[in-house]
């Protein structure tokens, strides 16, 4: 070491590495922390009994009958997860998604069963028509297009039926204009003023939904969803969408997907300061699972790194299929 180097070393009084030396030190100064109670576990509820059918493109995720759904929720609760998001998989579908508001459909039945078995778990329900229509679109088709206002009428019926079954939160994911306000008004008029609305406020037309569509059998039979889901290139538009949903009565707003839209998530949180959810969608989950199964990355580390990034970007609630694995990893 020459004199110049030695002198430079002596003057270096702020060493950033001091706080990275040990695991205990890193934990002590960690800025962003994950907790199981910020995770919301999505579940696919189907008809039948004793059904636990793995989704081929989503290892570790299953289509579950109501009885198996209750078991899954009980297991999740024991690991510290206190909220779930239910998607319904009916046997019968039609052009207008009428099974979405059947009081005996899988979601409504699962809500009642979960609230009976594990009453302290918060139950949110996805409100959309894509799982219930025979054409796979998120709304009512008129003249080969998804018609906004007739779709909203169907969504209101579904949301009210979920609230009547005991849902704590209804979550419209369709991206129709005006649906948050219509749902809020209908809930209040029917005595469900305590049922919260979690709006999929900035939901993008994304390539990352593919595995979900296998799980829910909800791929469109024609066309795509670009006319109602958001253009991936737009960020300012997301703020307008969120502002409108808040104005209409949303209690929680959501950005979906999560990882490709961390910039949008941060902007939404900073602009509005509202309780903000982010959905780590099926494609995000399946990519990590596939890479891990091929030995290309450390799944646990990659999972926690992604979830930490979502939290660091501003999410208060993380909807993730990794909820149970993550809860065990950080226990």
**The CATH homologous superfamily:** Aldolase class I
Share of helix among residues? Answer: 40-55%
Mean pLDDT: 95
Compute the number of structural domains: 1
The geometry reads as globular
Ends: how far apart?
Answer: 46 Å
In terms of DSSP E residues, the strand content is: 15-25%
In words, what does this structure look like?
The structure is a single chain. The chain is α/β, with parallel strands linked by helices and 331 residues long. It has one domain: TIM Barrel, CATH 3.20.20.70. It is built from twelve helices and twelve strands. The chain has helices at residues 3-11, 23-28, 66-78, 106-117, 148-165, 179-189, 210-216, 236-248, 262-272, 282-293, 299-313, 323-330, and strands spanning 39-46, 52-54, 62-64, 83-89, 122-127, 140-142, 145-147, 169-172, 196-203, 252-256, 276-280, 317-320. The protein has an eight-stranded parallel beta barrel, surrounded by nine helices. Strand 2 (52-54) and strand 3 form a beta hairpin. Helix 3 (66-78) crosses helix 4 (106-117), helix 4 (106-117) packs parallel to helix 5 (148-165) and helix 8 (236-248) packs across helix 9 (262-272). The radius of gyration is 22 Å and the shape is globular. The N and C termini lie far apart (46 Å).
Features:
TIM Barrel, single chain, 12 helices, 41% helix, alpha/beta, two-stranded antiparallel ribbon, 12 strands, eight-stranded parallel barrel, 331 residues
In short:
This protein is an alpha/beta fold and 331 residues long. Helices cover 41% and strands 18% of the residues.
């Amino acid at each position: 070491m020459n004199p110049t180097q030695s002198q430079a070393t002596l003057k270096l009084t702020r060493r950033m590495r001091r706080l990275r030396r040990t695991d205990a030190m890193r934990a002590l100064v960690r800025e962003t922390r994950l907790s199981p109670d910020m995770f919301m576990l999505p579940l696919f509820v189907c008809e039948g009994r004793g059904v636990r059918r793995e989704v081929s493109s989503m290892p570790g995720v299953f289509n579950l009958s109501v009885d198996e759904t209750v078991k899954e929720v009980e297991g999740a609760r024991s690991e510290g997860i206190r909220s779930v998001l239910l998607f319904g998989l009916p046997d019968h579908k039609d052009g207008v998604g009428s099974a979405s508001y059947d009081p005996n459909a899988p979601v409504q039945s699962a809500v009642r069963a979960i609230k009976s078995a594990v009453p302290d778990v918060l139950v949110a329900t996805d409100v959309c028509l894509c799982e219930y229509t025979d054409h796979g679109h998120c709304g009512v088709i008129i003249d080969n297009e998804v018609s906004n206002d007739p779709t909203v009428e169907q969504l209101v019926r579904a949301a009210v039926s979920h609230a009547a079954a005991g849902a704590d939160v209804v979550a419209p994911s369709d991206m129709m204009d005006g649906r948050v306000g219509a749902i809020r008004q209908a809930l209040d008029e029917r005595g469900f003023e305590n049922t919260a609305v979690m709006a999929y406020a900035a939901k993008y037309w994304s390539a990352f939904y593919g595995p979900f569509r296998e799980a829910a059998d909800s791929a469109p039979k024609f066309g795509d969803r670009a006319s109602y889901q958001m253009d991936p290139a737009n960020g300012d538009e997301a703020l307008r969408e969120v502002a409108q949903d808040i104005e209409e009565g949303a209690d929680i707003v959501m950005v979906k997907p999560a990882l490709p839209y961390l910039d949008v998530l941060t902007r939404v949180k900073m602009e509005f300061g509202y309780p903000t959810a982010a959905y780590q969608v099926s494609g995000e989950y399946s990519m990590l699972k596939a890479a891990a199964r091929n030995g290309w990355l450390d799944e646990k580390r990659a999972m926690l790194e992604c979830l930490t990034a979502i939290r660091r970007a501003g999410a208060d609630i993380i909807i993730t299929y990794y909820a149970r694995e993550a809860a065990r990893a950080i226990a």
